[in-house]
């Protein structure tokens, strides 16, 4: 809980210590303000999490690829919650050949790279579906032992829905942290992200700078 309070602390001049604390709410939440379109505001919002969308990528996301992205976003209900996903819903929305995987591939442009790595991709998608898509970056990878973003959704599915009540315990703990911190707008995925990130040494020394490896 202390890490969440610290993350949302505000300077005397009214600006936040951590710009990422405004990620979800910048110019209206991404999942309520044009939820099926990636907007210029969304691309600006990810900069609050210290990643940059290159010009070529921005032009493609907002222009030539906009319709394709919108088609896939429309297939993912806004009210889906990662902690409530059934196995069937996980396969439908997040597994192989799912709308989320197709969005990932469009944003990554793996056949003609335009400078959007796995970290930036995860943050763009988390802006549009914050309760469903987890953020991935070098800090999270280091804290969890992940070696890449390829299996992250399956790993979080195992953590949130693990056997012997472990998943339920994690969900209950994250819900309690969110409630005590007074940040009801946060998804449980984001609560976990902040707790892990604030527990890293980089949160003090580098603020919100993270790598975005291809």
Descriptors:
50% helix, 214 residues
Number of strands: 0
Number of helices: 12
Radius of gyration, Cα only, in angstroms?
16 Å
* Mean pLDDT metric: 90
Which sheet architecture does the biggest sheet show?
none
Helix- and strand-based class?
Answer: mainly alpha
Low-confidence stretches: none
Share in β-strands: under 5%
Element string (H = helix, E = strand):
HHHHHHHHHHHH
Number of domains: 1
Overall shape: it is: globular
- Which bin fits the share of residues in helices? 40-55%
N-to-C CA distance: 33 Å
Short structural summary:
The chain has 214 residues and is mostly helical. Helices cover 50% and strands 0% of the residues. The two termini are 33 Å apart.
Describe the structure.
With 214 residues, this protein is mostly helical. The protein has one domain. Helix content is 50%, strand content 0%. Helix 2 crosses helix 7 and helix 3 crosses helix 4.
Question: How do the helices and strands line up, and which of them pair or pack?
Answer:
Blueprint: H1 2-7, H2 40-47, H3 55-64, H4 66-73, H5 87-93, H6 99-108, H7 118-128, H8 138-144, H9 152-160, H10 166-181, H11 188-198, H12 202-205
Helix pairs in contact: 2-7, 3-4, 4-6, 6-7
């Amino acid at each position: 809980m202390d890490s969440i309070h610290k993350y949302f602390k505000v300077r005397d001049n009214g600006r936040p210590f951590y710009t990422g604390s405004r990620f979800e709410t910048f110019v209206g939440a991404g999942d309520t303000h044009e939820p099926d379109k990636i907007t210029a505001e969304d691309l600006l919002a990810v900069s609050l999490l210290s990643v940059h969308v290159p010009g070529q990528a921005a032009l493609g996301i907002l222009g030539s690829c906009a319709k394709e992205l919108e088609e896939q976003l429309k297939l993912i209900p806004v009210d889906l919650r990662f902690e409530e996903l059934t196995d069937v819903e996980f396969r439908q929305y997040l597994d192989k050949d799912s709308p989320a995987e197709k969005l990932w591939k469009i944003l990554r442009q793996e056949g003609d790279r335009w400078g959007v790595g796995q970290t930036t991709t995860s943050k763009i998608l988390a802006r549009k579906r914050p309760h469903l898509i987890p953020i991935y970056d070098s800090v999270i990878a280091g804290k969890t032992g992940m070696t890449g973003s390829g299996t992250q959704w399956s790993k979080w599915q195992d953590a949130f829905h693990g056997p012997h009540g472990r998943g339920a315990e994690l969900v209950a703990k994250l819900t309690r942290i969110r409630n005590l911190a007074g940040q009801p707008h946060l998804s449980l995925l984001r609560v976990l992200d902040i707790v892990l990130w604030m527990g890293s040494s980089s949160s003090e020394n580098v603020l919100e700078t993270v790598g975005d490896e291809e």
